[in-house]
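cache lookup: miss for this entity combination. No prior model stored, computing from scratch. Input as submitted by user K.M.:
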Amino acid sequence: MILRVEGIGPLKGGLKVPGDKSISHRSLISASIAEGYSEISGLSSGQDVLSTLSCLRQLGIGIAIDGNNCRVEGRGLKGFIEPDDVLDAGNSGTTLRMLPGLLSGQSFLTTMTGDSSLRKRPMGRIIEPLSLMGAKIWARDGNRLAPMSIKGTQLSPMEYELPVASAQVKSAIIYAGLMAEGVTEIIEPSQSRDHTERQLEFLGADISIDVVGGKRHIKVVGGSTFTGGLFEVPADISSAAFFMVAATLVPGSKVVLEDVGLNETRTGILEVLKSMGAFIVTDNVRVVGKEEIGRITVNSSPLLPVTVRGETIPKVIDEIPILAVAATQATGVTGIRNASELRVKESDRIAALARELTKMGAVIEELPDGMIIRGPSKLHGAKVNSHGDHRIAMALAVAALVAEGVTEISDAECVSISYPSFAQDLASLGGTA
Ligand code: S3P
């Protein structure tokens, strides 16, 4: 599919973007291992979350869907049943990395795979720690790539320091820790998103967090059961970020984003945009479950350059594509460093951004662990490609709003991975031809 975008004026209006993708995956997974029924509202309708949902159904979990609400029949910690086919995670790294944590502790063999992009993404980062707990996992290319087969067993607890800040890896070990005999301790090098910890605490699982010498230590007690409940999924700040940048860049815009998740491990985009001079106000903040949510109002404003590196990177990792677009319009040199993880996302996001934004007139220097962006550039419409990556497609659509002429984004169907109604929501704010 080709997405054609031409900016013609300011964006105005209000929007509630779809449910948070990370919290949606976790709500489905946690509800499926809870005792009894759970109700989830505001679930993401993106393809990635549907991949988790269909894998869980194949594992014997009853899930009834009604729009963005669903009812999940939890079967307890070890209640999955042996699937009669391979589980396909599609494009979803979160599905393929988190489910093996639970599958390692069941009593049967499961094989998981994904699409051609996911089959290239590193899986050693979950296979190694889960194997230390006793999991039996076989994977392609020297135990590094999917497809992979997981033979469930009785897991042992462990103490493990994560080599990279990854919420997917952390969550896989937390879920495995629930299945192990004893206390599993995970130490994070720097904090990644903590939705799994918050959700399990909210549900009453035995999980605790201490900060020792500046590092978070997460302790999970194996066998701690919990009952299902009500899950309310906030709107996804990673999706809202496209409209924050669009409203900032297009003169005369004002956009209000409702019920956006404001978990502090995800608000790096607000901090970075504000430090660039963006005019962003957050109000109506409240707590739902254990997650903060609120309203974000964005007015257009000029931008200054910024350097983003170190501990900020995990807090803004999924927003770097749209941040790169913002940086093309900032007055000066923006640096993004310590972000080599971008090379193993849905695409090599450093290469994809440098290549596609350059076609539109941006000045970007690719670095092994990030990029240097020299702004402001006068962008022009071009024929660009999404590299099959939803966040690259949507970032290019926002760049198109400030470009002269029409931009055609090919392979744009991938936006449905996280945001099926992106094009309609963008159109609803006006500003596009
Ligand atoms: C996610 C964690 C991050 C993020 C991904 C979603 C999650 O990946 O980039 O889009 O839901 O836990 P890593 O765990 O690889 O850092």
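stored under new cache key. DSSP finds 14 helices and 23 strands in the chain.
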